[in-house]
Amino acid sequence: MRNYKIYLYITLGTTIFFLIIAFFATPYFIKNTTITLLDSEISAAKAETTQIAVVFSEGQISKTDKEKTIQGIQKAITNTHREDVYLSLINWSGKIVSHPDLTLIGAKIPDQDNNTSSIETIMSGEDLYKLIKNSKKDISLTINDDIIYMLSIPNTDLIVTAYINRKNIQLRIKETRTLFNTGFLIIGLFTLLFVLAIIRYISSYYEEQLALKTSTIEDSVLSLSKLNTSLENYQKNILEIRETQELNSNVSKKESGDDVIDTQEKSKQRLLTYVRNELLSISTDDISYIYVDNSITYVIKKDGRRSTTNDSLDQIYSSLDQGLFFRANRQIIVAIHAIEKITKFGNSALKIQTNPESEIEIIIGKNKAASFKQWLDL
């Protein structure tokens, strides 16, 4: 990739963006997911606690032996303390009568859990989440799980207690955090790949367009370079022809080897102009360009001096050596030796810069550009 820095910045930006989102969003999602789970577990615990209390109460009404009922409950809840929610029986003094962990039967519940204000009350999922999140395991406690619901059994000294397995819930929170982080990572990677693919597609498109424009510009520059080279060569050829003509004025047309001399013999060598009220005869060799402005025909010499003539541009052009002068447009005629530089103008037109500098822009339209190039290659 040529624009590797762009892709590096995009990768870093996307990574930072998703890290920020994960930093703020993950705790929120974990909290809401855990609270929903705890609300569900609390509802299930309440239902089981009520069911046990009803069964025990009915057993007492039918004169069923209390100890047998406790044994039946013990058998039903044995080893359930590994689940998220489990039940136990305690008496009013806080002594454990029945518990899934047989080793805890006869022990007393911790003081912080022996709270009579919690009887027949139930915690919300949000309160329980805060309790689990902020609590730390205390090895001095017999039971490290939290009581979430207590219901007294009528006509007895027993209380059905529902516990939430703190270790399991903390493990669930950890798993949920890992799940969300993994999800954000996968989404971030796919998003990054998608963004990089889009950027790559767009950059490739613009690179192709830029390469096409560059190629067009290079072709134009090459064409203009060739055109200016042809101009220089043509100007040199004209100079050489004139020198040859002066040295060999009596040499025949065949020996000169160029039609330009014949054209020069048939064309005017001087042009009659006016400077104010004074008549001035100008050699065509001294003319740089001739143009029309506000119906007045101006003749500009090599030294930049300006004079006027009564002839129209068409009449003047027909009498000049067309190997040395070119009719750029309806407004101007330019001499070959006055052309200093040729540049591109618009899509297909050409602009001529002269010495001395032209008082008006010399633009060769696209319709005349081909004939101008042909003229330079004569």
Uncertain runs with pLDDT below 50, 5 residues or more?
113-120, 138-142, 260-265
CATH topology of the largest domain: Beta-Lactamase
Strands side by side in the biggest sheet: 9-8-7-11-10
Largest sheet: 5 strands, antiparallel
Number of helices: 8
Backbone shape: rod-shaped
- Count of domain modules: 2
CATH second-level architecture of the largest domain = 2-Layer Sandwich
Count the beta strands. 14
CATH class of the largest domain: Alpha Beta
- The level of helicity is 40-55%
SSE class: alpha+beta
What fraction strand?
15-25%
- The gyration radius over C-alpha positions equals 52 Å
Rounded mean pLDDT score: 79
Characterization of the model:
The strands form four sheets. A five-stranded antiparallel sheet has the order 9-8-7-11-10. It has a four-stranded antiparallel sheet with strand order 2-1-4-3. Strands 12-13-14 form a three-stranded antiparallel sheet. It is rod-shaped and about 150 Å long. The chain folds into two domains: 4-176, 2-Layer Sandwich (Beta-Lactamase), CATH 3.30.450; 267-376, OB fold (Dihydrolipoamide Acetyltransferase, E2P). It is an alpha+beta fold. The protein has helices at 4-61, 66-77, 125-134, 166-247, 253-256, 259-266, 313-319, 366-376, and strands spanning 85-91, 96-98, 146-152, 158-164, 270-275, 278-283, 287-293, 296-301, 306-309, 325-329, 332-335, 339-345, 349-354, 362-364.
